[in-house]
Design a protein that fits this description.
The chain is 74% helix and 1% strand. By secondary structure, it is mainly α. It has one domain.
Amino acid sequence: MLLVIVCALVASAASAALTALVFALARRAQMFDVPGARRMHAQPTVRGAGLGFVLTIITAWAALGFALGWSSALGRWAWLTTLALSLVAAVSWLDDRRPLPVLPRLLTHLIGSALVVVGTLGSHNPLLLIVLVFVLTALINLWNFMDGINGMAAGIAVLLAFAISAVGVGADDVPAAVLAAVAASAVLAFLPFNFPRARAFMGDVGSASLGLMVGALALLPMNERPPPLWEAAAMASAVILDGGLTLAWRMLRRPRRRWYNAHREHLYQWLARSGWGHTRTTLAYLLWTAGPALGVVILGQTRPDLMPIATISLYLAGALVWRLGRDHALRLRRSRI
């Protein structure tokens, strides 16, 4: 346990220093997100600061992969996940500097997801591998969609990674716990730059990397227990539900619209625009993650047989909350017009 704490503190300090450096360089390079009709901020803000925590995670996971060795399942996971993160982060950083076409970004997401999935599961079930590659690719993009207000995307990722680290400690798997803890601590060090007041945005380099990181942690090999797939699904429920249901609603609604265009129709965006603001909305999403979702994770440690039904129940309840919350936000919005 002491090793987990020490590694987490070192990662936090390194991430804070790197984030401050990237923040200064991005300002000098005039990398700003400017306000617009489809954005949630009111003044130009530095973007791309997520590169600081991404570099920290890549360095830490590569070092741990080297220490564990290729013969270890966890070592292979660390090596290939580090490579995947490096690819996704590099393309996303270029996109932050100058917008890229969709195809090269999507292709990189697919390659990164494939590296993580194959590195974890091998090639024993091709159909399962294909499904998981598409799931991880979707998660990368969902995290990007949900990075629209101060602190939310990063805060949920921090809670999720710390929960996975706790699962590793409970399984007496210190290396797995360290891998998750350094990721959580690195992202936590970014939050003072982004919440409650945003001096900087993480950019696509941060949000896309977080989506891949979360998917990789869901497949994290652990001693004498399956990967924490159900735990990660529960902790990511706010992102998956709001991102997925909003996308489905935009695809199915009439009259037809270009559902793939940038927009402000996620529940969190409606809440922030209806009077809740960034801070209250972010805290509500973090409360969902740290409340019902964390309860499901704790249940999984004592009654793992109940984990699937508990997670599915959480998603069903969350879908209802999403619909009621959307109606509430729309009523508030109309009353303010």
